[in-house]
Every structure is written in structure tokens, then in C-alpha cells.
Design brief:
Blueprint: H1 4-7, H2 13-21, H3 25-59, H4 67-75, H5 79-93, H6 96-104, H7 109-118, H8 126-138, H9 143-157, H10 159-175, E1 178-183, E2 189-194, H11 197-211, H12 220-235, E3 242-247, H13 248-251, E4 260-261, E5 265-266, H14 269-276, E6 283-288, E7 295-298, H15 308-317, E8 333-336, E9 350-353, H16 355-363, E10 367-370, E11 376-379, E12 385-388
Parallel strand pairs: 3-6
Antiparallel strand pairs: 1-2, 3-4, 4-5, 6-7, 8-9, 10-11, 11-12
Helix pairs in contact: 3-5, 3-6, 4-5, 6-7, 7-8, 7-9, 8-9, 9-10, 11-12
């Protein structure tokens, strides 16, 4: 049969791999060095581009900049990632010696950042002198080694600042503590977190203690999870509100797919029908259009809805409608897309927007246009366009 190389069109991965396979050891090592140098130069260019994007949008003089949102939308990254990227880009561009070392390929982006962040509390000329030493060292050492070296430079130079820096880093780490849930198939989730070591040790010790009382053939990991369920069942009384999502034809028994429970993912149709038709007020039924997956009705049985439209808009969109934003609609403002009183208080003229993106829409150079299919086209201060759509209950993300 044909090999991959024969079958593949020219200029493909297969071609490149074939070229690389023909290099001798020395040339292959050199190729890795070359591509790394190219990458570093591109990182330096990106930092410069982002710095100019920041300045240009800033100069437009809107009350809210909208620059981070613009970078987020163009690069399809979260606001948090784009904000971090902008901060690091501005930091590197602000230090020409560090930027040049990155552009020349002497250091990589991470080491550039370590040097910028590590010496940020110093003023020139002290900063420039220590920076030069750090750049020389960083050329032949990893980011981790460079971080330690920069810390050492700071301790020797200004012990008071070094202590201060340590305290700040500890506080920053503490501020990042969180627990999060990511939905997986079959009604399961990944539970992830960043928490103090002491808390984690106590949690695992408590779970192991209860797991030790189970005398059966479950694995230790399975027992830990069941122990957590037991602790929660014994210590909490929560009134849970769950949306049962069901396409109209599934409710009518015309098909058996497409149902889900908000926050928990897909469920089988019989289970969804049973939940949807229960008299239990904790559940709210959302009926969706089987072709578009958009919300067409929501039950009022479960809750008397004084503000029916707001709830319907939140249910329709599920999260902030700004490009790339995943903040749940429950934590958003319901915004008039065409400002009231010109724009009506109707679902088509309303969208959930998180507080940050609501401010950006109102006070920065971003504008938003509505379309009959429910989609919104957002235009950034640089004129790039980004379209978002109502939540599709047929294909939840």
C-alpha cells in the first residue's frame, strides 16, 4: 500500500517530517535551536504589537479602555488570559534590554517575564544594573534558576524589598485559591482546585478515615468519593434549583435524545421526561426548539416569575454574550442592547453581560448590533468583528 509520504499532498506535515528525518544529528539539533530562536523573536513582536494596541485604544479616550477585551476577542482567549498577556507585554516592552534579549533569542518569554517581575520594585539606574546581570545569567539557565538568581540579587541589593516581595508572592498565591467543576460525559465532572496544603491534607485524612469504615471491594479512590458524598449528606441541607432542558420533540416522545440537566450535562430522555413532568418545585423545565436548539418556552409552574423576561433571557443565553466570555448568566446584568427608551424591554433587545463587559459596551469603543436570528455582532475599537449566538441547547459546550 501507499506510505503516508506518498499519499500526502506537498507542503504538508508529512513533507516536513521527511525533510527533518533526512538531517544528520548535528543539523537536527541546529534546527531545534533555530526554531526556538524564531519563536522567541515572534514573542517579542507580539509584545510590541500588544503594547501599541493598548496605547492606540487608550488614546481614543473612552472612559473604559476596552483594550484587553479587544485582544481577547481577536486572539480568542479569555479576558483573564488576555489581561495577563497585556500586562506581561507592556512590562517587557517597558524594558528595552529585556525586549532585545527576547527578540535576539538569548532568553525565552518566561525568563523575560521573570526578570521584569523580579526587579519591578527597583528604580533605574539600580534596576538597569541588576537587569544586565540577570540577562547574562538567564542566557544559560532555566526560568526556575533565573527566578532564584534574581531573588538573590534583590536580597543582596535591597533586603527590605526582598522580604516585601516574598510577602506579596505569598499573598498572591493565597488569593488564587479556588475550587472548580468541569463537566465530563455520563453525568460526571472533574473537580479541580488550588488550595492550602493544610486544608487538602485535612480533607484527604477525613475522607480516608471514613473510607476505612467501608468493608467491601470498592477501590480506595472510589471509597474516598463516596466518603465525600456521605460527609455532605450528613452536614448540609440545600434547596437545589436545577433546569431540566428538553427539546420539544423529546418531550412529545418523538425522539429520545437531546435532553440535559443544567450543570450536569446530558441525561437520557426517560429520565428527563420524568423530571420535567414532576410536581417538584425545585425543577424548572426549559423547552427548546429541536432545530435551532434555542429556548422556546420555560415552565412557570416551578416558580412564579415576576421578572419573566430577565429569566428567559438568561436561560436563552446561559452566559455573558461578549465574545469568549463564560461568566454564567446568573452573575450578569441584563442589558438593553439598544438603550432604553429607544430600545424595547423585549428578549430580542436584551442580553446578559457580566459587569466588566457591560461597562466595556457602555463606556469603551466597543459597539454591538443585533440580528433577527438572535446573534450579536460586536465591533472592537480597532474595527474587528466578532459574532456570538444564543446558547444552543442541542449542542451545549
Amino acid at each position: 500500500g501507499m506510505t503516508v509520504h506518498e499519499a500526502a499532498p506537498p507542503g504538508t506535515l508529512a513533507d516536513l517530517l521527511q525533510q527533518l528525518e533526512h538531517l544528520d544529528d548535528e543539523d537536527l539539533a541546529a534546527a531545534l535551536g533555530d526554531v526556538e530562536a524564531d519563536l522567541r523573536a515572534v514573542y517579542a513582536r507580539r509584545a510590541a504589537v500588544i503594547a501599541v494596541v493598548h496605547d492606540r485604544i487608550h488614546e481614543m479616550g473612552h472612559r473604559v479602555s476596552g483594550a484587553v477585551a479587544t485582544v481577547a476577542a481577536i486572539t480568542v482567549t479569555s479576558a483573564r488570559s488576555a489581561g495577563y498577556l497585556m500586562d506581561t507585554s507592556l512590562g517587557i516592552v517597558d524594558r528595552p534590554a529585556v525586549w532585545t534579549a527576547l527578540a535576539d533569542g538569548t532568553i525565552d518569554h518566561t525568563r523575560a517575564q521573570v526578570i521584569v517581575d523580579g526587579l519591578i520594585q527597583l528604580d533605574d539606574p539600580d534596576r538597569g544594573l541588576l537587569e544586565a546581570k540577570a540577562l547574562t545569567y538567564a542566557a544559560s539557565h532555566t526560568a526556575h534558576q533565573t527566578r532564584r538568581y534574581v531573588a538573590r540579587l534583590l536580597v543582596d541589593h535591597r533586603p527590605d524589598l526582598a522580604d516585601d516581595h516574598d510577602d506579596k508572592e505569598r499573598a498572591k498565591a493565597w488569593d488564587r485559591r479556588h475550587l472548580a467543576v468541569f463537566a465530563r460525559a455520563h453525568g460526571m465532572v472533574d473537580l479541580t482546585g488550588y488550595l492550602p496544603a493544610g486544608t487538602a491534607q485535612i480533607l484527604l485524612a477525613a475522607l480516608d478515615q471514613i473510607a476505612g469504615t467501608y468493608d467491601d471491594d470498592r477501590t480506595h479512590d472510589q471509597k474516598r468519593v463516596d466518603a465525600l458524598a456521605q460527609i455532605l449528606a450528613n452536614n448540609t441541607r440545600i434547596d437545589v434549583h436545577v433546569d431540566v432542558v428538553i427539546p420539544a420533540d423529546t418531550l412529545a416522545r418523538l425522539r429520545n435524545t437531546g435532553a440535559s440537566i443544567t450543570g450536569f450535562g446530558p441525561v437520557d430522555a426517560d429520565h428527563a421526561r420524568a423530571l420535567a413532568l414532576r410536581k417538584d418545585a425545585r425543577w424548572q423545565l426549559l423547552i427548546t426548539d429541536p432545530t435551532t436548539g434555542q429556548l422556546i418556552d420555560m415552565s412557570t409552574k416551578a416558580y412564579p416569575i415576576p421578572d419573566r423576561i430577565k429569566k428567559a433571557v438568561r436561560a436563552r443565553d446561559r452566559h455573558c454574550r461578549f465574545p469568549g466570555c463564560t461568566i454564567p448568566a446568573a452573575h450578569t446584568d441584563t442589558d438593553h442592547l439598544i438603550p432604553w427608551p429607544t430600545g424595547q424591554t423585549t428578549p430580542t433587545n436584551l442580553a446578559p453581560e457580566c459587569r466588566g463587559h457591560h461597562l466595556i459596551k457602555t463606556h469603551s469603543g466597543w459597539t454591538c448590533q443585533t440580528h433577527p436570528d438572535g446573534s450579536l455582532t460586536w465591533t472592537s475599537p480597532l474595527g474587528t468583528q466578532h459574532t456570538t449566538y444564543p446558547w444552543n441547547y442541542n449542542n451545549p459546550e
